[in-house]
Amino acid sequence: MAVIYYKFRSQRDDLISTIKFDGTGLTVFELKREIIYANKLINSTDTDILLYHVEDPDKEYEDDNEVIQRASTVLVRRTSGGKRGRGNILRYLAGKPRIAKSQVPIAASSPAPASVVPANEDDRIRQMFNQQDDQWNQQQALMASAQRVESNRQNLKLDENIPEYYICYKCGEKGKHHIRNCPKNNDPNWDGIRIKKTTGIPKSYLRTVDNPTDIVNEPNQNFMVNEEGKYVVAVADKKAWQRYQTIQQSRQAEDDLQIEDPELRDSHSGKLWKSPVRTKCCKQLYSRPYIEDILMESDFKCPHCGQEEIYLDSLEPDEELQRKVDNYVKQLKRKNYAEEEPNKRQHLATMIPTMMPFMPFPAPMSLSTNNKK
């Protein structure tokens, strides 16, 4: 769907309307007729409608057969037709295109050679398609050599009263220019900046930045805009990271335990049992992570007896041994807590401030008590 932009001279520069159509362009006659229908000027029989070039407001489109390419901008002017009912609107609604006065007529002595109409129907169809191809090639050649001229008055006016919180989503600058006047529009190598809002992100995970251009070159770093219109970037959750590190350290501490009881020590790794299970074929005892890796590497073949098709869901948990492991871990934690408790109490005692001494004099009695007496 192609469009042509138009604006009446009596309107403001920012009030631009469009005419939508299919194709590469419209003639002046067709564009005037579409503008008349779009603005409901059918009953304005005493009005003339004129089109002008936007780059030269004094130059009129005089030839109704002139083609205006798509994405072009024209100026529209309404004037009086001189006499009542003698406007040109009726001609554009029901008449034929007007030929410009400056057009050179064809001499009668040298008429254009008339095309020979083939008698065969197939030849006529083939000739029609060839004419369409020639017209298409001519239009493509005109479009390739044509240059679009835009009006700078409208774009410059957009930057006059631009608010401070306005952000150009092309380059990321705030309160400096409109996106239509962005200097990056003419840069074909500029990919743009990804700017998104901070919806759903807590404020504690955001850091305010003054100049977002300093972090654009950093990989995988995109800045956002909060509800106040400020530039922010996401920061890591330090509490979650510390909690993760604590869990990993506790697991590492369990792996480094020196197990004295041979019943609680894994014979393969020499560490504490982790989810002890037994195979259904030979009832051999393994830690679940260890035996699962062995079975997947050996195509589900038992490493002890060689039985095949020993799948992971067929491993039987040893609940009794698991209870012993859990009790051992609980006792170890209780022992460590008992050793750390005196140190914590001593630390808290140093943090508690000394109590204030009692006042040497009694507190004064209130006025209400004296009145009662």
From TrEMBL:
Cellular component GO terms, alphabetical: nucleus
Keyword tags: Metal-binding, Nucleus, Zinc, Zinc-finger
Membrane-spanning segments: none
A GO MF label: zinc ion binding
Gene3D superfamilies listed in its UniProt record: Phosphatidylinositol 3-kinase Catalytic Subunit, Chain A, domain 1, Zinc finger, CCHC-type, Zinc/RING finger domain, C3HC4 (zinc finger)
Compartment list: Nucleus
Keyword Flavoprotein: no
SUPFAM superfamilies named among the record's database cross-references: RING/U-box
PANTHER family for the chain: CELL DIVISION CYCLE AND APOPTOSIS REGULATOR PROTEIN 1-RELATED, RETINOBLASTOMA-BINDING PROTEIN 6
Protein name: DWNN domain-containing protein
